[in-house]
């Protein structure tokens, strides 16, 4: 009778492996659909049949990213922060954490926003004049995501005091 001497696994990605065992593991380098074929080697012949072929689909890795942050100052002290993010291949967004720091790096505002959407916003009031940095971190199923595009500087201007000129006249003379 026939005696099996080994197996050759062709993984459909250019990788083949010959071994004595009929059990094997393989890691694909990139997503796609592959046809895996097993050839059985025996003392009589090498054989491959339709039952020795299987299609394997490797899904892309889940990904998420923070893609943009805008900081808009209105009425001198009102600050609106708008963030954008992406999530694909099964990744999900759970929240956004907005932070504003002053020129010394001190945190002056932190606001978590629970949202599963690809955008979120928050508003606050910053009354002290100066330069500030806004940053957002997007909390996702594949970790916390931020980027240089998700950090923006903005300025709060000094309050404009109307100029007043007083001229003292006594009997019509300066």
Write the layout of secondary structure elements.
Elements: E1 4-10, E2 16-19, E3 32-42, E4 46-47, E5 53-58, E6 63-74, E7 78-88, E8 93-101, E9 107-114, E10 119-125, E11 130-140, E12 143-145, E13 151-156
Radius of gyration: 32 Å
* Average residue-wise pLDDT: 93
Contiguous runs where pLDDT drops below 50 for at least 5 residues = none
Structural class: mainly beta
Say what oligomer this is. Answer: single chain
Q: How many H/I helices?
A: 0
Estimate what percentage of residues fall within beta strands. Answer: over 45%
Helix percentage: under 10%
* Overall outline: rod-shaped
Number of strands: 13
Taking the sheet with the most strands, its summary is: 5 strands, antiparallel
Order of helices and strands: EEEEEEEEEEEEE
- What is the end-to-end distance? 128 Å
């Amino acid at each position: 009778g026939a005696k099996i001497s080994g197996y050759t696994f062709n993984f459909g990605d250019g990788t083949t492996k010959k071994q004595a065992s009929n059990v094997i593991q393989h890691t694909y380098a990139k997503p796609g659909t592959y046809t895996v074929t097993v050839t059985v080697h025996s003392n009589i012949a090498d054989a491959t049949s339709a039952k020795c072929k299987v299609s394997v689909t490797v899904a892309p890795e889940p990904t998420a990213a923070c893609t943009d942050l805008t900081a808009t100052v209105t009425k001198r002290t009102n600050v609106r922060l708008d963030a954008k993010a992406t999530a694909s291949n099964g990744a999900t967004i759970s929240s956004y954490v907005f932070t504003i720091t002053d020129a010394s790096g001190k945190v002056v505002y932190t606001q978590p926003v629970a949202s599963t959407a690809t955008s979120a916003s928050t508003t606050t009031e910053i009354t002290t004049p100066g330069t500030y940095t806004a940053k957002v971190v997007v909390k996702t199923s594949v970790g916390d995501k931020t980027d240089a595009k998700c950090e923006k500087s903005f300025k709060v201007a000094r309050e404009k005091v109307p100029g007043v000129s007083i001229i003292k006249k006594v009997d019509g003379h300066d």
